[in-house]
Amino acid sequence: MKQISMTAEKIAELVKGTISGDPQRVITGISGIKDAAKEHLSFVGNKKYEEQLTTTAAGIILVCKDLANAPASDRTLIVCDNVDLAFAKLSALFAEEPPAFVPGIHPSAVIADDAVIGENVCIGANAVVESGAVIADNAVISALCYVGHEAKIGNGTILYPNVTVMYRCEVGAKCIIHPGVVIGADGFGFIPGPQGLVKVPQTGIVVIGNDVEIGANTTIDRARFGKTVIKDNVKIDDQVMIAHNVAIGESSILVAQSGIAGSAELGRGVILAGKAGINGHITIGDGCQIAGTSSVVKSLPPGQIAIGTPAETQRVFLGRLALPKKFQKLEAKIKELEAKIKELAN
Amino acid sequence: MKQISMTAEKIAELVKGTISGDPQRVITGISGIKDAAKEHLSFVGNKKYEEQLTTTAAGIILVCKDLANAPASDRTLIVCDNVDLAFAKLSALFAEEPPAFVPGIHPSAVIADDAVIGENVCIGANAVVESGAVIADNAVISALCYVGHEAKIGNGTILYPNVTVMYRCEVGAKCIIHPGVVIGADGFGFIPGPQGLVKVPQTGIVVIGNDVEIGANTTIDRARFGKTVIKDNVKIDDQVMIAHNVAIGESSILVAQSGIAGSAELGRGVILAGKAGINGHITIGDGCQIAGTSSVVKSLPPGQIAIGTPAETQRVFLGRLALPKKFQKLEAKIKELEAKIKELAN
Amino acid sequence: MKQISMTAEKIAELVKGTISGDPQRVITGISGIKDAAKEHLSFVGNKKYEEQLTTTAAGIILVCKDLANAPASDRTLIVCDNVDLAFAKLSALFAEEPPAFVPGIHPSAVIADDAVIGENVCIGANAVVESGAVIADNAVISALCYVGHEAKIGNGTILYPNVTVMYRCEVGAKCIIHPGVVIGADGFGFIPGPQGLVKVPQTGIVVIGNDVEIGANTTIDRARFGKTVIKDNVKIDDQVMIAHNVAIGESSILVAQSGIAGSAELGRGVILAGKAGINGHITIGDGCQIAGTSSVVKSLPPGQIAIGTPAETQRVFLGRLALPKKFQKLEAKIKELEAKIKELAN
Predict the structure, then answer these.
(1) Domain membership flag for residue C182
(2) Minimum CA–CA partner of B239 in chain C
(3) Calpha distance C310→A321 (Å, rounded)
(4) Chain B residue with minimal CA distance to A200?
(5) Which residues of chain B register pLDDT less than 70?
(6) Can the peptide bond before residue C310 be classed as cis, meaning omega within 30 degrees of 0?
(7) A45 and A145 assigned to the same domain
(8) Measured between alpha carbons, how far is B35 from A223 in angstroms, rounded to an integer?
(9) How many Cβ atoms from other residues are within 10 Å of residue B94's Cβ?
(10) Contact B134, B116 (CB under 8 A)
(11) I need a surface site. Which of B17, B53, B62, B315 has the fewest CB within 10 A?
(12) Is the CB of A74 inside 8 Å of chain C's CB atoms?
C-alpha cells in the first residue's frame, strides 16, 4: 500500500460526501473495518453493521446515508451515496500499482511473420502468436500466452499469462482475460452413428465484445457453426463453462463455476450466482437472476428470480423448504382429529 | 464458410435422403434454422419444431421422417434417417478448414535428446518434451504443451496448446486433447497421522485409449498405484474432474463440469450430464444415464437413469418434486374431515 | 513398480504390525486387493470388506485390528493400527521414483536480471520468472511456469508445469502446486455505476503457508485489498475455486470442484467434500464437515456436519429425504379416518 496522507476534507471532496466529525482528521492508509487501525480509512455500507462504527479503530469511515446520524464516538464519518463505489475509488489511490506493461516484444516470443501487431503492443516472454493473427494497438499478450491463427485481439485488451485463444476467435477492446482461460476450444458434439460416436465438426468461432472480463481457467467453446457470442461489458468469474453457440447479453454477470449448455441464450443484465447451471437451447430473459447452485431447465421471461434444481420461483422454493415443518403440523392435526373421532365413537 | 453451390439433388445423394420439392434448388451455404437466408441449407430434426419449416428463410431443409409430409411452402425438404448426422456431414463440407498442422519441430521447442519422435510429427513453438517421452507418428504437440518424462502420445493424436501430460502417462491414438487439459497430476490422498496430514504417494499413471476426446481444462489424476483408465471412444467435455484410480468404460460421455471421485468405475456407454457427480469406490453399470447436477452415492446396475442428490429413479424424483402439490391436497382433505367431525359432534 | 523382495517379518517391522500367519512369506510387489497376485502385498482396512481376505490372491495383507482374527486361509495377515498410513508407507518403497528434479536453470527459461534465485533451485524449460521475484533454495519451477513480479516461492516448494503465480503473491515452503493452478488472478468485484459495471481494483495478494498442496487447475484469487490466506498444511484438490479475501485455516481439506465465495473464513481442519460451496462473508468453524455438493449459506459453529442446499444438519436433511415415505403413511392414515367418519355418520 502506498503511504499517502489525506484529510477527511480531501476525501469528502473526492467522493462527493458529507463530513460528520473532524474534517482535519488524517489517515495514511485504508483497511477493512475489522483490521483497521486509527490511521486508516474504512467503510460501513449497510445499517445492519452499525455497531462496527464504534468497535473499529478506523479513524475515518465512509458510511451510507442510513448511518449519517449513527453514534460513532470520535471517528470522522463521511456520508456517501454509494459507499462501495466511493471506497473502490479511494482504494485504487492507495493501492500499490500493479507491474507496468512495457510495450515491446520479448525476444523469446514466437510471432508469425504475417501476424499483424499494432502500436504500443506488449508481448511477453515465450508467448506464441500464429500466422494471420491481428493484435490491435495497446494490447498486452502476456508471457506464455497462445494466440491462434487469424485470431483477433482488440485495442487495449490484456491477456494475462497462460491464456489460449484458438484460431479465428475474436476478442474485443479493453477486455481483461485472466490466466488459464481457454477461448475457442471445440464445442462438445457427437452423434451416435453405426460405428459409434461421430464427432460433429465445430466450424464456428467465439466472438467477445468490448470491456469483457473473464476469470481464471474459464472456458468458452467455439460454435458448431456461426458464433458463440459474449456481448459488451459481460463479467465472467473463474472456472465458468460456456458451451458452443451460447449467446450472453450485455452486462451479464456469471459467477464462479457456473455453466451454460449449448445454444442457450441469456439476455442483458442476467446474473448467474456461483455454480448455477443453464440447460441447452433455452432462453433466459433480460435481468433474470439465478441463485447459486440452481439449475434452470426451462426458458425464463425477463426479470425472473429462479432458485433450486430444477429452478422455480423463490416463493415455490421456500414453500418446498418449509415442507417438513408444515408436515409436522399436519401430523399433529391428524392426531387431534383421531382423538376426536375416538371420542365421538364412544 | 466456403462458398460452394450445391443442388438439392446433390445433397440428397450425399446424405442418402429423399427430396420433397424442387431437386434443382441451389444453396451456397449452411446455417442454423433461425439465421438462415434463402441461399442456405438448414435442418429441423424434431417434429416439435415443425412450424420453423415455414418461418425460416432457408432454401433447403433437412428433415426427419416425421416431417416428410409437413407443409413447407416453397422450401425444398430432404428427408433423412438421421438429420443430425447428415447435417454434420454437410457442415464439414462447407466449413472453412482449420489451420493445417505442418509436420516439423519448431526451433523454439525444447525436446530432450532421448525423446523418441515419430514420422510426420508436428511440435509447436515453445513446447517441451522431456526425457524418454515417445511421440508416435502423425501426432501433434501444439505450442506451449508439456509432455513429461517417459510419457507416450499415440499415432495421430492432437494435443492443442497449453496441455500438460505428466510423466509416464499414456495417451492412445487419434485422441483430441483440448487446451489446458492436465493428465496425470497427483491424485488427492492424505491420511491423518500423529503430526498431521500425510501425503499418500501417487505412484500410478493415467492410461487413455484411442479416439478419446478431452475438453478444455479437464483434469485426470494419476493413480495412487496402478492406473486411472479412460477406455476407447470416451468423450469428455470441458472442466471435468476425474480422480485417481477411476475407470471409464468405452464410449462413455462426460458432460462439462461433471466429476468422478476416486476409484469409481463407470461401464460402457455411461452418460453423465453437466455438473453430475459420482461418489468414490462405486460402480456405475453399462449404459447408465445420470441427470445434470445429480450426485450418485451408491452403485447402479446397468441401464439405470438416475436423478437428484442423492440420485434416485426418475419416478421417485418426480414424486418428490410433486410433494408440495400433493401436500396441499392433503391439507384440503383434512379441513374437509374436520368439518365433518364438527358436524357429527353437533 | 520396483521389484523388491520382502518378508512378512520385515514388513511387520517397518509398520510396527503384528503377524498372523507365516512370517517368512515373501512378496515382491504391492497391489489393490482385487488385482493382487500371490506375490503381492495388499490391504483391507475395514471390517465390512472382510470377505476379500479369502477372495483375494494377495500373499500378505495388512489388516485393521477388527480383522486380527478373521479367517484368511493361507494368507499372512499383518495387523496394524492405521492400515492406510502403513500401506502408504510401503507403497512409497515399492514405487518407481518420479523423475528427479535436477538443480539448474534451463537455458530456454526467461529469468529477470533482478529476480533472486536461491541455491539448488531447478527452473525448467521455457519457464518465465519476472522482475523482483524471489525463488528460495531447493524450489522447483517446472517447465512453462510463470512467476510474476515480486512473487515469492518458498524453500523446497514444487510448481509443476504450466502453473501461474501472479505478481507479489507468496507461496510458503514445501508446497506442491499441480499443473494449471492459477494463484493471484483478480478477485471478481464490480459495482453498478451510472455508466454500467465498474471494476473494483483488486489490490491485495494471495499468501499461502507451508506444506500446502494445490490440485490441478485450481484458482485462488488475489484480495480486493489485504490478503487471501491459505494457512499451513491445507490440502486442496483439483478445480477448486477460492475467491478474494477468503481465509482457510490450518489442515483444512477442500475436495475437487468445491468453491468458496469472497471473504468467507474457514477454521482449522474444515473438510469440504466434492462440489461443496460456501457463501461469501460467512464463517465456518473449526472442524466442520460439509457434504458433497452441499451449499452452506449461513455461518456454522465449530464441529458441525452440514448437508444439502441450503445446508442443514444431517438429521434435518435425512428427515427431508424421508418425506415422501412419511407422506404416504399420512395419506393412508387419512383414508382410515375418513372411513371411520363415514361409519360414524351412518
Answers:
(1) yes
(2) C239
(3) 9
(4) B88
(5) none
(6) yes
(7) no
(8) 14
(9) 21
(10) yes
(11) B315
(12) no
Q: Is A40 a catalytic residue?
A: no
Instruction: Indicate the residue of C95, C255, C323 with minimum beta-carbon distance to B201.
Output: C95
Chain C residues closer than 8 Å to B341 by CB: 341
- The residue length of chain A stands at 346
In chain A, residues with a C-beta closer than 8 Å to the C-beta of C226 are 31-32, 35
Place of cell 445446508: C311
Q: Which of residues 105-134 of B touch C (CB under 8 A)?
A: 108, 110, 126, 128, 130-131
CATH, residue B201: 2.160.10.10
Determine, yes or no, domain membership for A10: yes
Q: Pick from C206, C96, A162, A81: which is nearest to B201 by CA?
A: C96
pLDDT digits (tens, 9 = 90+) for C82-118: 998 898 889 888 888 899 999 999 999 999 999 999 9
The model's pTM: 0.95
Rounded Cα–Cα distance for residues C143 and B220 (Å):
19
pLDDT in tens, B152-178: 999 999 999 999 999 999 999 999 999
pLDDT band at C225 (very low <50, low <70, confident <90, very high): confident
Cβ contacts of C293 on chain A, cutoff 8 Å: 293
Decide if A162 and C149 are in contact by the 8 Å CB cutoff.
Answer: no
Whether C226 and C122 map to the same domain: the answer is: yes
List subunits contacting chain B, requiring 3 or more Cβ pairs under 8 Å.
A, C
Phi, then psi, of B117 in degrees rounded to 5: -115, 125
Whole-complex ipTM: 0.94
| Distance, first Cα to last Cα, chain B | 84
Q: Which of A149, A180, A257 sits opposite B180 (nearest CB)?
A: A180
Cis ω for the linkage preceding A107 (within 30 of 0) = no
Point out the domain boundary residue: B52, B74, B94. B94
Q: Which of these, C191, C196, C186, lies nearest to C243 by C-alpha position?
A: C186
How far out from the chain centre does Cα C206 lie? 19
State residue B324 phi and psi, 5-degree precision: -60, -40
Are A173 and A257 in the same domain? yes
Predicted pLDDT at C177: 98
Determine, yes or no, domain membership for B345.
no
Sign of the dihedral defined by the CA atoms of residues B100, B106, B110, B116, in that order: positive
pLDDT tens by residue, A238-273? 999 999 999 999 999 999 999 999 999 999 999 999
| Same-domain status, A166 and A221 | yes
Assess whether C44 and C179 both reside in one domain. no
CATH code of the domain in which B83 resides: 3.40.1390.10
Among residues C149, B109, B176, the alpha carbon closest in space to that of A96 is found at C149
A163 Cβ contact list (under 8 Å, min separation 6): A142, A145, A146, A177, A178, A179, A180, A181, A182, A183
Q: Give the structural domain span for C43.
A: 6-94
Q: Is residue B326 part of a domain?
A: no
Beta carbons of B193 and C95 less than 8 Å apart? no
**For B137, phi and psi rounded to 5 degrees?**
-55, 145
Q: Which residue has the higher pLDDT, A90 or A159?
A: A159
Pair (C131, C68) in one structural domain: no
Compute the distance between CA of residue A168 and CA of residue C191 in angstroms, rounded to an integer.
33
Same domain, B74 and B117: no
C111 and C206, same domain (yes or no): yes
Chain A contacts in chain B segment 203-232 (CB below 8 A)? 211, 213, 215-217
Total domains in the fold of chain C:
2
The band of A69, judged by pLDDT with boundaries at 50, 70 and 90, is: confident
* Residue carrying C-alpha cell 475515518: A60
C-alpha cell at A278: 443453464
Which residue has cell 460526501?
A17
Q: Which of B73, B94, B115 is the last residue of a domain?
A: B94
